[in-house]
Amino acid sequence: MNKQDKIYVAGHRGLVGSAIVKKLNEKGYSNIVKRTSKELDLRDQYAVNEFFIEERPDYVFLAAAKVGGILANSTYKADFIYDNIMISANVIHASYKYGVKKLLNLGSSCIYPKFAPQPMREEYILSGALEPTNEPYAIAKISAIKMCRYFNEQHGTDFISVMPTNLYGPNDNFDLQTSHALAALMRKIHEAKKNNTSVTLWGDGSPRREFLYSEDLAEAVVFLIENYSFADIGEFVNIGTGTDLTIKELAELIASIIGYKGEFIWDRSKPNGTPRKLLDVSRINELGWRAETSLEEGLKKTYRWYLDNVL
Asked: Active-site residue among 8, 59, 112, 137?
C-alpha cells in the first residue's frame, strides 16, 4: 500500500476496526474512509454499491460483524447468520465489482470443529461438526472465507482471510447480554469488588481459551496486507499467541489485576462451550509476525481503558 491510497475500514468503531485505524494512522496512512452503521447499513446491497461507487477505495479491511458471546449467539441465531452473511457478501462483491486492489477479511476461530485436534491448523476447517452455541456465526464466517477464495480463483482478485483467536482490548463490548467472555468477566469482577459480592460465572471454568490483544491483531493484519497476497497465504491464516489458559485461571488473573478477593461461584447448569480453542500459529510466525503483548499486560491496558471510557 502507498500512503496516499484510499483505505476503507468496515467496522471502524468496534474492537478490531478501531485498532486497525489506530495502527494505520501510526504508520502514516491518512486517507481512511469510515462510515458508522447508521450512515451505511452493510446488509443493504444497494447502499453498499452506492458507497463503493462514490468512494472507490483501493484497499478494504472487512472488520464489520455482528458479534457476541455464548448468550448472544444462542439467543439471536437468525440475526447472527443473516446479518453476517449479508455484510460479508455485500462488501466482498462490491470490492470485486469496483476494483479494490486488496481486501482483508476478518474471520473467527469458531469456524473450527468443536472437537478439532489441538492446536488447530488451518486445514482442520470443515473437518467436523461445529460448536452448536455459535454455529450460525461460524457458518457465516466460513461463507466469507470461501467467498474470498472463489472470487480470487474465478476473477483474479486478491482477497485475504485471517482467523484471529479470541480478542480483547480498547473499544471492547462490556454489555453483559452481548459481550464475549473476557469483557464480561472483567465487568462482573469489577462490579463485585465495588459491591463486595461474589461472582457467578457460567460452566465449571475448565474450558481452555487463547486471547490476543486487539492492537497485536491490528499489527498483524496491516503487516499481511502490506507484504503478502492470496497466492502467498492461501485460503486463510490463523492469528494468535499460541498459548492458552482455563477460564478459571483467566478469572483469577483478572481478579488479581482489579484487586478482587471475593468468591467465584460456577453455575454448572450453564454451557461450557468448546472444551479448548488453541490456534496453531506456525504459519503466521513463519511469515514474519509474532504477538508481542502478554496477557497480563494486555489485561491491565484494557482495564485502564474500561475505567476511563466505560465508567
From this structure: 137
Specify the residue for cell string 467467498.
Answer: 147
Instruction: Match 460448536 to its residue by C-alpha cell.
Output: 131
How high does pLDDT run on average in the chain?
95
- The span from the CA of 15 to the CA of 101, in Å, is 25
Beta bridge partners of 166: 211
Domain count, the chain: 1
What is the CATH classification number for the domain harbouring 127? 3.40.50.720
In a domain, 303, yes or no: no
For residue 137, indicate whether it is catalytic. Answer: yes
Residue 100 has pLDDT above 90, yes or no: yes
87 is in which domain, residue-wise? 7-172+211-243+277-293
pLDDT digits (tens, 9 = 90+) for 177-194: 778 889 999 999 999 999
List b or e across 222-231, with b for residues whose CB sees 16 or more CB atoms inside 10 angstroms. Answer: bbbbeebebe
CA distances from 174 to 26, 87, 93, 179, 303 (A): 26, 23, 32, 6, 11
The CA-CA-CA angle for residues 161, 226, 218, to 5°, reads: 65
- 21-35, 231-245, 271-285: which range is least confident on average? 271-285
Categorize the per-residue pLDDT at 113 as very low, low, confident or very high, splitting at 50, 70 and 90: very high
- Asked, for residue 266, whether it belongs to a domain, the answer is no
Residue 267 lies in a domain: no
Does a structural domain hold residue 249? no
Average pLDDT over residues 233-246: 97
The dihedral region occupied by 56, where left means phi > 0, alpha psi between -120 and 50, and beta the remainder, is: left
Question: Taking the chain, what is the end-to-end CA distance rounded to the nearest angstrom?
Answer: 38
